[in-house]
Amino acid sequence: IFDNTTHNFSRLPIVVDGKELGNTLVFTMSPDYDGNMWIGTLGQGLLRYNLATQTFSQYDAQSHPRIFERNTVAKIIVDEEHNIWIGLGGSYICRYNAEQDDLTPFKVEDSISRQTISRVSTIYEDIVGNIWVAGLAGDLFLFDRANNRFTRNMPGFTCDRIRSIIERKPGVLLLGTNQGIVSFDVRERSF
């Protein structure tokens, strides 16, 4: 933790239920609107750090076995509706709703072809609220919020991996891949 007064960093021990989690590899972090920091790890699942109480809560294979099969969280984002989206280390993402204190899993697969994502690598919400999920085999899926399902959006494009997504301008996504940056026109579904 960085102290603005002393300009020093200090280690924050991750303690859950009185036990310190050692050797925690952190992949991703994101603050929410309620004063929590969400932390995605390799092997320890999902952690929520409450900044006010300075306490951790853990969501993992032990507490949520139907959701956390690998205890790996690759990406976390908070959307405009204050939902927390969690990209798990396989073909699933979860949506956490704080009002209901509920995790809802979604398998990332095309609603028609049933083609499953290779492995979730990143999640992004665009300016109009679309949730995009990319995989390590260069696959890109769009989440249909009304029907809680996905559509694969990669006609004629091949790359090894999509690692990041940003929006260059409304309707144009930039995909960070192993082959450089690729521009994707959302309306035309073209590169």
Number of strands: 19
Helix/sheet category:
mainly beta
Query: What kind of assembly state do the chains in view correspond to?
Result: single chain
Low-confidence stretches: none
Describe this structure in words.
- The chain has 191 residues and is an all-beta fold.
- It has no helices and 19 strands.
- It has strands at 2-3, 8-9, 15-16, 19-20, 25-31, 36-42, 46-50, 55-59, 73-78, 84-88, 92-97, 102-107, 120-125, 131-135, 140-144, 149-152, 162-169, 172-177, 180-185.
- Strands 5-6-7-8 form a four-stranded antiparallel sheet, with no helix packed on it. Strands 9-10-11-12 form a four-stranded antiparallel sheet, with no helix packed on it. Strands 13-14-15-16 form a four-stranded antiparallel sheet, with no helix packed on it.
- A hairpin with a 2-residue loop joins β17 and β18 (172-177).
- The mean pLDDT is 89.
